Amino acid sequence: MNRRHFLAAATAGFAAPTIVRAQGRRQDGQQGAVKSAKASFRLVTLSHDLEQPWSMAFLPDGRMLITERPGRLRVFANGKLERTPLAGVPQVHTGSQAGLLDVCLHPRFAQNRVLYLSYMSPGADGPTATVARAELGDGGLRGTTVIFEALPRRWGNANLGSRIVFDRAGLMYVSCGDRFQMQLAQDLRDCAGKIVRLRDDGSIPPDNPFVGRPNVRPEIFSWGHRNPQGLTLHPATGWIWEVEHGPKGGDELNVLKAGANYGWPRVTYGTNYDGSIITNTRHLDGMEDALRTWVPSISPCGLTFYTGDKFPNWKGSLFTGALSAYALFRIEVDGERYVSEERLIEGRLPYIRDVRQGPDGLLYLVTHSDDGGLFRLEPA
What we know:
This protein is mainly β. The chain has one domain (18-379): Neuraminidase (6 Propeller). Helix content is 1%, strand content 42%. It is built from 1 helix and 26 strands. It has one helix at residues 109-112, and strands at residues 18-21, 33-35, 40-50, 53-58, 64-68, 72-77, 80-81, 100-105, 114-121, 128-137, 140-149, 161-166, 172-176, 194-198, 220-223, 227-233, 240-245, 251-255, 292-294, 300-305, 318-322, 327-334, 337-344, 352-357, 363-367, 372-379. The strands form 6 sheets. A 5-stranded mixed β-sheet has the order 1-23-22-21-20, with no helix packed on it. Strands 2-3-26-25-24 form a 5-stranded antiparallel β-sheet, with no helix packed on it. It is globular.
């Protein structure tokens, strides 16, 4: 997708957002300060030796795990990327957007060494989004067990979702894309276009909103999603926040509510990629309105609330990568209300796939390309 200047949502019902662009001229890390609205920072390159990195997780011992979409789990330690990937990663179906995707630590990882991988697993009836649970040992994973598959299986390698996050109660949320078959998002017999909620062993919580209803998958927590590419926990409220890709326009920022329908494709601000109309409906009673809708698309990927001390004026801000906007977005919110946004490092990095806050209070990014990089934002 070609880069386009940001436009405020042009459809009635959306106030023009406040948008700020940070100023900086350099094209890579370790080359000068960037002055933004509330902080000055440097973009530092940590590695350029990753192939299509997708996600990161920080271990208690200071190491970092990084997934590579072709099926490798890498370790970054002591300032460098270890040459040998970790053993024990399950077999992965690759192609287009498919492969090894998210990595997430168990809330009690320091005690049990358990982590989770999301990936597309192969199968006779087609690949599907899958979550495996494993224990991290010396040099690799052991006891790898599949705990969730987005059923039914089908062919196709686009709109996969596949983010994982835990809530305060220790329940796991997994995003499932609509697999480029939009009507599936409104079908409660299918995991496509849903956020599912599971226990840490993959079993179904008895208070899930659709437990006991006939012809409805009991793991579903919310529905009517297109391609959810970011999930994060609000540090104060404990609510799960989500970003998802629309088609041509219509990307969304949402707060997830049990049993809620987020509208896709019956409600959208986007159009088909060929320009044809999906629907002219922007709101329906009984469906959740997005907190923020982006037109044209920014393709938001990864999502985190900043809670650190290194950038005190950024506390409480949301950060998301923006593939088609070639930027990192800082979003200010007030409760569950969108306030404004700022574009950082615009045009300096290609395809920011994930953004995470490290235990050191700094922000880390990975860029999804064949020569993908790991980067860090530091105070200038």
